[in-house]
Amino acid sequence: MNRSSKGFGLAGVAIAVLLMIATAAFSTSAQSAETSAQAEQVTSK
Q1: What is the pLDDT of residue 2?
Q2: Would you give per-residue pLDDT tens digits along the chain (45 residues)?
Q3: Of 1, 10, 12, 19, which one has the fewest beta carbons inside 10 Å?
Q4: How many Å apart are CA 35 and CA 22, to the nearest integer?
Q5: C-alpha distance across the termini of the chain, in Å
Q6: φ, ψ for residue 7 (rounded to 5)?
Q7: Strands (E), 1-45
Q8: Exposed e or buried b per residue across 25-40, where buried means at least 16 C-beta atoms within 10 angstroms of its C-beta
């Protein structure tokens, strides 16, 4: 019982880290997409 709860804790930490990395990568890609879209609008004018 103790070992399984410990394993779940490690899995939870790993999932949390993966979520943080995915969120950071998504926000960064979204910001770069916004800036590139704005740049395209400026150049198209």
Answers
A1: 58
A2: 556 666 678 888 999 999 999 999 888 887 777 777 777 776 666
A3: 1
A4: 20
A5: 65
A6: -65, -40
A7: none
A8: eeeeeeeeeeeeeeee
